[in-house]
Serine/threonine-protein phosphatase 4 regulatory subunit 4 (Chrysolophus pictus), 848 residues
Amino acid sequence: MRPVPCSSDMDFGQSNLFGYIEDLQELTIIERPVRRSLKTPEEIERLTVDEELNDIERALYLLSSGQDVQGTSVVANLPVLMRQNPAETLRRVLPKIREVLHVAGVEMQLTAAVSFLTVLQDESVSIHTYSHSFLHIILQNLEHRDAGVSNAWLETLLAVIEALPKETIRHEILNPLVSKAQISQTLQSRLVSCKIMGKLANKFEAHIVKREILPLVKSLCQDVEYEVRTCMCRQLEHIAQGIGTELTKTTVLPELVELARDEGSSVRLAAFETLVNLLDMFDSDDRRQTVLPLVKSFCEKSFKADESILVSLSFHLGKLCNGLYGVFTPEQHLRFLEFYKKLCTLGLQQENGHNDNQLQLQTLEQEKKYISVRKNCAYNFPAMIVFVDPKNFHLELYSIFFCLCHDPEVPVRYTMAISFYEVAKLLNSGVYTIQKELVTLLQDESLEVLDALVGHLPEILELMINGGENSGSESKLLSIPDLIPALTTAEQRAAASLKWRTHEKLLQKYACLPQIISSDQIYYRFLHRMLTIILTNNVLPVQKAAARTLCVYLRYNRKQEQRHEVIQKLIEQLGQGKSYWNRLRFLDTCEFIMELFSKSFFCKYFFLPVLELTHDPVANVRIKLCYLLPKVKSTLKIPTDKHLLQQLELCIRKLLCQEKDKDVLTIVKRTVLELDRMDISLDAFQKRFYENDLLDQEKERQEHLLLEMEQLEKEKQQNEGRSANVNDKMFEKKRKFICMHIVCKEDKKSKLVRSQSFSTQALHPKYSNIDKCSNKSSATGYTSSLSGMGKGCMLSFSDDSFRTRSTGNSGNATFSTSSSLIASRNSFNSADQKNNGNKESQSRKMSM
């Protein structure tokens, strides 16, 4: 197409005008196929069906007079017709389908095969009726000239055989099979017979199989066509399972030995794979005298004359080595190990068994084959560790493990990443030997490799930290110096890519890090990164994954100052953020807070900031808040949180009175009804909330244990100069005890008495006045307040800010951990604070 001239030089002469018309005509060519694809009125008339016809009449009309696409739709709808009106469908529709299938095309044939199988699975009719009506149609279409159609009907028949009674199978399938399997029949007929015999072997007793099926099996194993011999060879596994061990040794094994020496490579390959699958059925003598020589022959020929078997041999080598482990001599054991090592580097260097000229002129097909071989070796690596014994891993297999993890091809490294967890489990205490390879795979350039490794990353890291001899000591964290940089690099690479699912998965798995590395390392290297992702990432699942992981980090953070700083940032940057999208993510984060933390923690820090969003200018934020309000209300305890309940009711009244958006108002009314039906738990245990109360008190208890751990660390730092060894031992004992309660009881729903809970003042200065009023009305004992808090400052809190709630119930027991917490802080608390605590507890008892 010629370019359009500028307006200053435009010439409206006849020649130029005709040139533009030609250009327009060229453009109209694009639309012509679209016009031709539309239906003409005559075609629409032929496709129109009378609406007054019922389903059966319409089906018959379309099968008789309709077009092929309409007939195919009727066949696809056959299971529905069978459910609605089975008698009429069998009497009128099915004979018509049988008649149409004789001249039907491939699409209708494939649809019919699927529909017949669906009717069987739906059990719309009895198996006797099905075999009488449908089985003959299936058998008639088995030898269709199209191989795809024939295979579809064969799959349907094999599924039907499972449900048919033995007598029906004998008369309708087995007896005709004798003639179908003869050499005079077509190739397709003999191939179908092979697969049917493999299925029938498990339906009859061993003596019937021996008398009626085995002669046909031997005949087909010696067929003149290699396709038939290959197909029959692959069915020998099913036949062996049907006739038992003794007949397998005397009948099947000789046939396999003969087929393993066949002139056709595909037959030899089928014989080898069948031999490996039947290894468990042979005794040690058969393995030593028959199987082992065959396997050695396959291994020797695979590098020289028969490379076609190389890929299959590498895939089954792990199973083969472990299956023959008991019959190997030390020399044979070493030979097979060396053979495996040779396969692991195939294609990467010149092998002795190859011609140098051939290696230099490797075709693309050969390269693909060698990549598949190394990939199969990576797949079999855990089995080879069992073969050599994990104790010998470093000496025998570490160099190969290193090569596979650094293989130039992504599929090989991907397979190693998938099997890395299995390798780590097998090595157990020797897992430290593969730490460098873990870091290497975390830094791999391919995100597919990273995605495969991340699936079991928490379990792998746990084994890395606890798998060595000094299990449980913090010095273990220093044994993987490059782990934290590798984890941060992996996350940044996933974030920079377009594969957001990998990024989401990675962030979800990073929630395990509090059990792996220290709280300070998480705070400085990961926690702020999670907050940045929430604020800047554009993918909602990634933001939610980051929010939940951030909440987990906050849950296990051991320093009050760091916790309060993070909470402050969540409230300011998310809850009070300028973007409504950030405020929506704040509500998502609050959901995770309610899931992971105790009710008292949420009420202390997030209850009032959540209620502030009832005045949000964006309707979507208010809608999301309304959906969240029932969960928010479930965090309250009466009478302790009575003032918060009043605040909640006040906000709902304002929404009902002042809301102008119709959608929001509708959801508010629905939420009000749901809130009215809700019951609020009391400070004392109630039967209907018993399980939830137990979980909540366990969360509170773990929060207190974290405070104790922080106090112990402070004590250790203060006493660092005096009797360091004794102090280290005492601190380690206390730390282990507390960690055991925090980590080991995370997933246990243990039935304990309610402990005391966090009682700190809400962080943001904005809510200090509200809290002061609420303290006066409910006497909850929130005595400390925060003022002058900035975004970046590190806060210091007196220990009285974590004064626990008193339930006021004389029947409730108190935890020894709570008393020990108070005792450990006596050096920091003044007498006035103790008196205040006593007054608070008395006032709560009076209110009860």
Summary: The first strand starts at residue 637 and ends at 638. The chain has a mean pLDDT of 79.
